[in-house]
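batch job 7 of whatever, protein = UNC93-like protein MFSD11
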Amino acid sequence: MVERNLVNVLLLGGGFMLIFTSFQTLGNIELRNNILGALSFQQTIIDSIKTDLPSFTGDGYTSLAIIYAALSLSNWVTPSILSAIGPRLAMAIGAITYCLFMASFFVPHVILLYGCSIVLGAGAALIWTGQGMYLSQCSTGETISRNSGIFWAMLQMSMFFGNLLVFFTFQGKTHIDETTRSIVFAVLIAVAIVGLVFLACLRRPSTNGDVPVELSHSVRPRDAFLNAIRLFQTPRMILLSITFVYTGLSLSFFSGVYGSSIGFTNAIGTSAKQYVGLNGVFIGVGEVLGGVAFGLLGTRTTTRWGRDPIVIAGGVLHMAAYFLIYLNLPNAAPFGNTDALSYIQPPSAIIAMGCSFLLGLGDACFNTQCYSMLGGVFKSQPAEAFSIFKFTQSVAAAASFVYSSYCGLHVQLVILVVLGIIGTVTFCVVEFAVKRERPTLERDYEK
């Protein structure tokens, strides 16, 4: 008989996979032209709306900036909200905000777009902090790594499916008419609603066998907010925050900058633009494989060797990817179409896709172990811990989107290498301290 908490984790991963398949597909469509420039095989939804409705002045980057700002600020409030309503209701409310944001494209208006971006940012803080808290409640010291890997693999399947959908649905289209847009939006919203139903089916976590645990919300909202601030000031969380910052920087790099750099490098060939979609697919494959591997082996590896070998492996994978990218793509690639060359002449599409896979696999190493660390070591304060994680990660991602507009590719790679090394070291420092205290922590954890 499948344990109750494992079913909860599968429902949680399935709900997030469906919701983010819809949202990331929309994000790819919404931002594609802003990130990649004028693509030969597709125009964006926003550009198509502007063509049909010239009065619409919405901008994908502005929407993204608003979402990140609202997400960053809301993360400090979410522990108080979760202490009052619990993680399951918080995730359901957060999922609804994603559906509302996608529905706003049925009535294209700049105020509605940016207003829904604010709502979505607040909802994203709820759904992600709630997810971390709920995953922690469904896990023990022996299962947290496994559950983190399972959830991460299922979540990242959304990147795989979303990029494939965009690649095949809009290939060869220069304009997406209103009817097609409406059909796409309706399908995406329907998929997200199914994901919301999955989250609504989540059951109360159990502690002993299939006995539901009595979850206490006795912490007052004000105390939850103050606890988050105090936790943020602790030495361990300060060290981990450097790792979180790196994950945010790498996220914005491989989700935006790297893909655009491939598409803008003319020397790759006439199919350079099409490799942008495949870039997302290969990143998704790396993410899913990493999640599956750590889901199957997580408990065994964490118990025997700890989390640090996996994070070190992720750091090595990322360093290798950055080095190959440095050799393969020119410094001017992020800024627009360029005929410039780097050290590998001509640039290799195979190496570019290989780097995409390495970036995804390395990201899975970092994120699954961050989830395992937060859900295990900070089990008594999961809402506060995960809100800090998402706050630092989103602030770093927003900062990366800003400096990537001014810094060449090679400068960005140097920043990533430096922060990647420091972030790996700081995570290992915390993990080494946890290993020394493991017997005590395990006894406390089981209580």
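notes: The beta strands are 206-208, 211-212.
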